[in-house]
Amino acid sequence: MRWADLLALLPAAPCRLAAFPFAALFPPPLAKGHLVSSRYIFLLAGGCLLAAAAMGSYAVLLLIPATGSVLVLLSVSPAHAHTWVFALQMSWQTLCHLALGSQEPDPQDARPAVALSAIMLLTQKATSLALDIHEGLVPLQPGQGLLQRALPLCSYLLFFPALLGGPLCSFGRFRAQAAAGGAPRRPLWAAGQRCLGALALQGLHAGLVAGLAGRQGCAGPGCLPHAWARALLRRLAYYFHWVLDEALLEAAGFGPGAGQGDLSIHDLWTLETTHRLAVFTRTWNKSTSHWLRRLVFQRCPAQPFLATFAFSAWWHGLQPGQVFGFLCWAVMVEADYRIHPFLSARATSQGAKLLYRGTTWVFTQLIVAYILVAVEAESFSVLWLLWTSRNSILPLSYGLALLLLLAKKPKQNGACPGLARAAG
């Protein structure tokens, strides 16, 4: 199964949908500090049950690094916690990608892909928690017993609403919401609204699939209309995936804070109407972008922008298409930051501005489609077909324009920090 196919399969999985009534049963706090341990146990047990139901025997691949990360956090000093957890998680995740990727894929068995996705999300949570401990944001309180210290950590890494998806929730927010006392039972209308939005997105996706099915035309990596339509359908699958993930978190009382989710109506409008690839990239998968900014960009002494995209390719699996696609994405965003100031300064009349915005919107759509096709490529032969097709004309033109503008003048101050959120 290809990496991108996971996005269409996970939201429709029966085990995922079965987590909604389980989330509704999540016990509310009766008084401050009361039932805190039972809520941690409920979240952890729900995560283990969901992992077993969705992954079968592959759930062991998730439980091993989760247990190892907790043991590391409890035994290593805070100054070295992040280094050890990062090494453990990325080594294990890379081994799983190589081992499961080398198997002959079974179209009827989504469990390996589900397990890989859950391991990637576990890496996010484990490294985020390790950074919190390293920076002193989360004290481990050594005076407590081992079980009292380990239970919140295990629950956070494996709690069921965020096991298979969802925006990254910080450990501090998780602990505060799990231990909140005296709060009334949260309303379910927010989760219901998100579910309705997910149904609307799925209906739009199904309608576009039906509309495209009856059309005769070109197909393959070299067909621009086919690549654009495929990218649009894939984006709708992403949107459905994110909205359903956030609905599950809302149902369990762990909804993301303002601006911390992966998709809002404003974000959806921005993604589909922006004429700037850099704006699209900053808005895409925001929680992962914030995580990459904190994990890589802010900690990399040299070439942090390129390092962020390179690490994103590693985190996604290091398949040939992923390496090429993410590095191409980095070059295109870098070009975008330089090309648009050059073009906008010359679009002085209203007609010129409309032409500039309309043309660059089309360019952004086609470049996003090109990157998506590249990321999905599983072999060098498919990449070669893409590279030698006419779809490569626009990315090559952006790359040439970048070289010319680099030779002409230095990049404007302040552009680089905005790029840190680009590698989602």
Describe the fold and architecture:
- The chain has 424 residues and is mainly α.
- The protein has two domains: 10-180, no CATH class; 189-407, no CATH class.
- It is 69% helix and 0% strand.
Counted up, domains total: 2
Number of helices: 19
User: What fraction strand?
Assistant: under 5%
The structural class is mainly alpha
What average pLDDT do the residues reach? Answer: 82
Count of individual beta strands = 0
Listing every helix as H and every strand as E from the N terminus to the C terminus, the arrangement reads HHHHHHHHHHHHHHHHHHH
Low-pLDDT sequence parts: 1-13, 30-34, 181-185, 411-424
Query: Major sheet: size, sense and barrel closure?
Result: none
Shape: globular
Q: CA-to-CA gap between the ends?
A: 21 Å
Helix content: 55-70%
Provide the gyration radius in Å: 22 Å
Keywords: Acyltransferase, Endoplasmic reticulum, Membrane, Transferase, Transmembrane, Transmembrane helix
Main location: endoplasmic reticulum
Membrane topology: Multi-pass membrane protein
GO molecular function, one term: serine O-acyltransferase activity
What's the SSE blueprint?
Blueprint: H1 5-9, H2 14-24, H3 36-55, H4 60-75, H5 78-101, H6 111-134, H7 146-158, H8 171-178, H9 189-213, H10 224-251, H11 265-273, H12 277-283, H13 286-295, H14 304-316, H15 320-344, H16 350-376, H17 380-387, H18 393-408, H19 415-419
